[in-house]
From TrEMBL:
InterPro entries: Spore_Ger, UPF0353/GerABKA_families. Belongs to the GerABKA family. This is Spore germination protein. The chain crosses the membrane at residues 281-305, 377-396, 408-432. Residues 474-493 are annotated as: Disordered. Pfam families: GerA. The lineage of its organism: Bacteria, Bacillati, Bacillota, Bacilli, Bacillales. Residues 479-493 have a biased composition (Basic and acidic residues).
Length: 493
């Protein structure tokens, strides 16, 4: 017992020596008016709300009688009060916004009470996944507030929240969320094991987690779906997926996911199923157009000009008559110009960025055509491809689409249309091999599962979606009885 007390005192003194170097470290002593017992508050002033200390805790400890720390729980008007006999808890509690209360002369016992300072922004509408119809709430950087938003959407006892601490220096809190009687336990175990296995000093955002727990770290395709919408999170949990929320990040991670889900906007579920399906098909067509239109232009003009109709060929020849560059250099010049404008617009303040994007695009595009560096036909195609790439609802997948155009351009220059086919084959093989938390990424196309087509490339009515996706292997595959659901017409039929 003596050795334990000596070790605790030694650990506490060493910690105090280090903390005294910080200006926000406070160690204050007071004396109880009745019992004359001396007690100390130890805390980090930047992490606690000193009003709680001054208005609630200190008056009670000065005026109420107490003899030892065990009596303090009944005196302090705070629910979160913890008594510990382990000095190793001091560091963790102090940096989590707790105040350490000790009685001078009482060794090997420490009292901690919560007094966290709430610093953060309020709940705002989504910025990345904005929708005209539907809720206007988005996650913020506070883990507790984000969990509150999820709990409000799913007020059930089966909603389980597990908290982990990751990062040797940052000690970032991470919450794993799932519905116990719906989720496949294997998916939960996989994500938990990968999070516990992270060996890194600082976790600043959920983007770190995406890269560290993905099945294939070298793939340009995101293997976890990130969202800032609580409604999308609650819907994914109800399907049987696992959600990860990182403290300090306004984006939640959802898995396992599929390739098609990245082209599905959550606003689709607020629209009639026919209109929603039409918009999804437009997005998928836009992605294919964005990737392929420039490589096809390069391939046809370099190798297969005989495929161009005569009337169109005359227009192309007229537009390229004064252009001294080969098609590949012309295309690369405009593609890189578009990417430069995008990066400049994203990094500059909002108002300046919008001006740069609009004015820069008009001025540079017009000047390059008049100078004879590019043809007006290619300028139109690349502008349409840039617009098409913006239809991707998920930002991470949009970046992947932007990247893919350049390998396709290279293959088109080397082997023409055959090169584009080869590039597509490589891409298809990569997607077939890719997995998300061990589940096939290209499902329902590969492996072919007709049931899951109900909510993939198109979205059928709610009455037709009586089963959860086969991909998830849920404990409760059936959502509703489809025969009962079809007795009454669905709201979107």
């Amino acid at each position: 017992m003596k050795k334990t007390i000596q070790k605790n005192n030694q650990d506490k003194l060493e910690l105090e020596k280090i903390l005294l170097k910080s200006n926000d470290f406070e160690n204050l002593s007071f004396t109880n008016e009745k019992t004359k017992i001396k007690f100390c508050f130890t805390y980090m002033s930047t992490l606690i709300d000193e009003k709680i200390l001054q208005d609630n805790v200190l008056p009670a400890l000065l005026k109420e009688e107490f003899q030892q720390l065990d009596d303090v729980k009944e005196i302090i008007p705070i629910s979160d009060v913890q008594i510990s006999d382990n000095a190793s808890d001091i560091e963790q509690k102090l940096f989590n916004g707790y105040v350490l209360l000790t009685i001078i002369g009482e060794h090997n016992k420490y009292c901690f009470f919560a007094a966290q300072k709430e610093v953060g922004r309020t709940i705002n509408p989504p910025e990345v996944e904005f929708s005209v119809i539907g809720p206007k709430e988005a996650f913020v950087e506070s883990l507790d507030m984000n969990l509150n938003l999820v709990r409000k959407k799913l007020p059930i006892k089966e909603l389980i929240i597990e908290e982990l601490s990751v990062g040797a220096l940052s000690k970032t809190k991470i919450a794993i969320i799932y519905i116990d009687n719906v989720v496949n336990t294997e998916n939960v175990n996989t994500i938990r094991q990968r999070l516990e296995g992270i060996q890194y000093d600082d976790i600043a955002d959920s983007s770190y987690i995406v890269q560290m727990v993905s099945d294939n770290h070298n793939s340009p395709f995101p293997q976890l779906l990130d969202t800032e919408r609580p409604d999308r999170v609650s819907s994914s949990l109800a399907e049987g997926k696992v959600v990860v929320i990182v403290d300090g990040s306004p984006h939640a991670l959802i898995g396992p996911t599929t390739f098609v889900e990245f082209f599905s906007s959550f606003e689709d579920y607020f629209l009639n199923w026919l209109i929603a399906s039409f918009f999804r098909l437009i997005r998928l067509f836009s992605v294919a157009f964005s990737i392929l239109v420039t490589p096809i232009y390069v391939a046809v003009l370099s190798y297969h000009y005989e495929l161009i109709p005569r009337d169109l060929l005359n227009a192309l020849v007229a537009s390229r008559r004064a252009v001294p560059l080969p098609p590949i250099l012309e295309a690369l010049f405009l593609e890189l110009t578009i990417e430069l404008l995008r990066e400049a617009g994203a990094r500059l303040p909002t108002k300046v960025g919008q001006t740069i994007g609009i004015v820069g695009g008009i001025v540079i595009g017009t000047a390059s055509v008049e100078a004879g560096l590019t043809s007006n036909v290619l300028l139109i195609l690349i502008a349409l491809a840039a617009l098409a790439s913006f239809t991707t609802p998920v930002y991470r997948m949009g970046n992947t689409i932007r990247f893919l155009r350049f390998p396709f351009l290279l293959f088109a220059e080397l082997w023409g249309l055959l090169g584009i086919v080869l590039a597509f084959c490589f891409l298809l093989v990569h997607l077939i091999r890719l997995t998300s938390l061990g589940r096939p990424y290209l499902e329902p196309v590969y492996p072919l599962r007709k049931v899951d087509f109900k909510d993939s490339f198109i979205r059928l009515s709610f009455s037709s979606q009586g089963h959860r996706p086969l991909l998830l292997r849920s404990k409760r595959p059936k959502r509703v009885d489809e025969s009962d659901a079809k007795k009454k017409k669905d709201i979107d039929e």
